[in-house]
């Protein structure tokens, strides 16, 4: 009798009323096939594997099916199970094998394990909803439907030199009551703030971890405040493929995938790229005292770096370290990033503690790390931005030396530290500032300025406001006796520790914030700001707010009115950068005139034109960018002159002469009060004195020659 049903989709086995047959080894994970679901999982040392099936939310499984030995190919167990309810299904695995920690094996068939390749995880469906601590399977693997209508959306592929990156905590951005959004703290809520991001001039949001983690991990009562300490930042991964249900207004309905995709699509419609902060250096399982959730129980020796005695190397500072250059783990990372790029249209990735990704299984740095090379040359990731946090907790610091393969950019910690010290008024920093302005050619000579992601503040450390309000960290609210968090903040409180009613000090703090933003946005490279810095958010001097789901991490939107001068200035300097291509070069300056304009592409000056002072005691630097050399001479722009003065008194700066018919116009003067500190782009007033300009103490001036 004729039939249209393929023979390989007939069941061959039946157990407990469940029909199944041998499956396909690839892809790993759970995949929908005609009439059923294909399950595939790898383990190099397991001697037995059992598939465990649950109805969604039920305490006990409705079936457990042991993989017949003939269903194993190499070290991969695969099975097609028929006639399952995709929407109501949760699944996991039991792995049997040796429990010999000294040999790296920690199998325990009594534990139900989550699938590393699961595309959604149940069990933490609403943020901080109290879980059932007696649940035999707390992090439940689920399937997702691939039926989202992307319409005509695709990754934007904005040239990296044109990006203005905005680092954002998904929940913290809209959770504060002042945000006035529906469903605060969710993917959906961010859509209500897209108009704000465009007004600010942002064209790339970098989201702190949004894949599944457990906010209840290491939760406890704060002995100082009495409040609850939680895992707020999310740098502790439960599953790399699954968006966090607790970040979705629809998470309790299992619709977090569609909600996140809708956000990405809406951001793209408005010209804003999406970059994800990914954490492939460790997982939520911790060290030998931690919980077995997935990787440890499936194949501990493959997934983690282990000492010869079977303990966990801890280059991440969190208890364990993923063995990323093992081929199996490397393939998982590649599969994961390909999935986010292809199925979520993600534009780029920032890799937390990325130096770990270049270590071998014993922790030694590799000269040619296979994972980093694979990511750089992967055809699916070819247009994605790849950004490394080029250090780790084990002491490996690779800023300027991270293996790049012509693709990788770096969070430039040297930029951050140099600019902070210069603004503070330290001596001997003029050379570093000259490097910072140019995109650090000493570090990135062969890679170009776009290898440098420039930032002065980020989630980790002081906010920009706190940088000028505190000399010391104040982390008592973390319940660790102020012992956590970095001590090298290079901050200056302007005379008073913390909040003050002193008008002069508050004016100075605002001026310093404007100085910082000015330097950031006139520097070659790629600028990144921390969400809320544009309106003066404070964390009360806490430089390590990883554990706070409260006002320390929530953006207070009331500051837009209180600090309107900061917001207006931020808007101006962001749009000023975007209006002037001479500030956004892909190649380093040549310090010569190669287009015949009569001026070099960049020239440095001091209080005297053409005479920069790089001496140890100098706190002054000016530079001029010739607009005829914009984008390597392919575009004509205005000439930009910037005077930086970190000395405490005002100084006259002699201005370089411009060609006949052109004159200097004032764009920015941070020494002036709000309303006079910048002028609208294209309407900058002409200077009466074209020969010199008085730059105030601790001030920045930006001129446009046109």
What is the percent of helical residues?
10-25%
How many β-strands, per DSSP?
30
Going by helix content, strand content and strand pairing, the class is alpha/beta
The amount of beta strand, in percent, is 15-25%
Mean pLDDT: 96
Spatial shape: elongated
* Termini gap: 84 Å
Q: Characterize the biggest β-sheet.
A: 8 strands, parallel, barrel
Low-confidence stretches: none
The number of helical elements comes to 14
Largest sheet strand order: 14-15-18-19-20-21-22-23
Rg estimate, integer Å: 28 Å
Write structural notes for this entry.
With 706 residues, this protein is an alpha/beta fold. Helices cover 19% and strands 19% of the residues. It is built from 14 helices and 30 strands. The strands form eight sheets. It has an eight-stranded parallel β-barrel. Strands 1, 2, 3, 4, 7 and 8 form a six-stranded antiparallel beta sheet that branches. It has a five-stranded antiparallel beta sheet with strand order 24-25-26-30-28, covered by helices on one side. Helix 5 packs parallel to helix 6 and helix 7 packs across helix 8. It is elongated. It starts with 12 loop residues before the first strand and ends with a strand. The model has no long low-confidence stretch (mean pLDDT 96).
Give a quick precis of the structure.
The chain is α/β, with parallel strands linked by helices and 706 residues long.
Feature tags:
706 residues; alpha/beta; 8-stranded parallel barrel; 19% helix; 14 helices; 6-stranded antiparallel beta sheet
Give the topology, please.
Elements: E1 13-15, E2 18-22, E3 29-33, E4 36-42, E5 48-55, E6 63-66, E7 72-73, E8 76-82, E9 89-96, E10 99-100, E11 105-106, E12 120-122, E13 140-142, E14 165-168, H1 187-191, H2 194-200, E15 204-207, E16 220-221, E17 228-229, H3 256-269, E18 273-278, H4 295-303, H5 327-343, E19 348-351, H6 370-377, E20 385-388, E21 408-411, H7 413-424, H8 430-438, H9 441-444, E22 452-454, H10 464-467, H11 503-522, E23 526-530, H12 559-562, H13 564-579, E24 602-605, E25 620-625, H14 630-633, E26 639-645, E27 651-654, E28 664-669, E29 692-695, E30 699-705
Helix pairs in contact: 5-6, 7-8, 11-13
Enzyme class: hydrolase
Keywords: Glycosidase, Hydrolase, Transit peptide
InterPro entries: GH, GH13_cat_dom, Glyco_hydro_13_N, Glyco_hydro_b, Glycogen_debranch_GlgX, Ig-like_fold, Ig_E-set, ISOA1-3-like_C
